[in-house]
Amino acid sequence: MQPDNRFQKLQDDYLALRKQLNSKRITPAQFDAAQKNLMIRDAQGRHWTLGAKDGKWYMHDGKAWVLANPPIATTPIPATPIATPQKSQSKSNRGCLIGGCVVFMLVCLLSVGGGFWAYQSGAFTLNNLLNLVGLGPGSIEVDNFRDDKIDVKITQLEPPKDSSPIQSSFRLAAFDVRSNSIAQPGKYRVEFSTTDKNIKLGTCTLNVQSGDQYQFVLLPERTAVNRVNKPSSVGKDFVVETSSLCR
Questions:
Q1: CATH number for the domain including 172?
Q2: Are residues 29 and 55 in the same domain?
Q3: How many CB atoms lie within 10 A of CB 155?
Q4: DSSP for 57-120?
Q5: Is pTM, for the whole model, over 0.85?
């Protein structure tokens, strides 16, 4: 039997979110919205998550979330570092002018050298460049947290003139995850159904823009949706049936 690494992966995702929050790459509201999707279901059917404020493990006992230890060991979460604000120093107008010129020259030099290094090292990719001009790909990730297999169908609704619509279909076993790249920005319909009984699990029409990262989480009781790169702060937007993302 393969080891269950989903608990460690969920904790790693939580730490990545907290790192983005600490570096102010996302707002507290965006952190809270994204954290709500960090959920896992164990072999006994119990749901687990990490507390948004304390980073501790919680299990749903059927009535409420209670503090509990996960069924497998995970790496301890380090304490959240507190950034110390730096004091600003006043300078004369002449000093600012001279310093500003020097900084501008340094930025230009670093931009050229740093850009070349980033491209050579792979830190800056073609997709990053395309995203800057609005032509980069998006992605749709599907996480199946149900006990049965599901079928997913993605269809482009407004293909370019004289082009056939892009279509993608795939199947996920229980607790499988799959990410699908969207090469052309535009409108796409995403349909979910069970494999064995063909029960409809929801349909969502997305407006996928350059760099968008959508995530669908199929749970036993509902299908959740989230735009990872720009999470909503409205609760109903995380459920396919009521989400403004699914128009």
A1: 2.60.40.4150
A2: yes
A3: 16
A4: EEEE-SSSEEE---SS--PPPPPPP-PPPPPP----HHHHHHHHHHHHHHHHHHHHHHHHHHHH
A5: no
| Residue 233 lies inside a defined structural domain of this protein | yes
Q: Residues 17, 25: contact at Cβ < 8 Å?
A: no
Please give the tally of structural domains in the chain.
3
Residue 191 contacts residue 117 (beta carbons within 8 Å): no
Give the tens place of pLDDT for each residue, 55-83. Answer: 888 999 888 889 998 877 666 666 554 34
Residue 56 counted as domain residue: yes
Query: Would residue 244 count as lying in a domain?
Result: no
* Rounded-to-integer distance, Cα 65 and Cα 227, Å: 25
Nearest-angstrom CA–CA distance, 41 and 226: 18
pLDDT in tens, 158-215: 888 888 888 889 999 998 999 888 888 889 999 999 999 899 999 999 999 888 989 9
Number of H helices, E strands in the chain: 4, 12
| Rg of the chain on CA atoms, in Å | 22
For residues 158 and 178, membership in a common domain is answered with yes
For 36, the domain range is 6-67
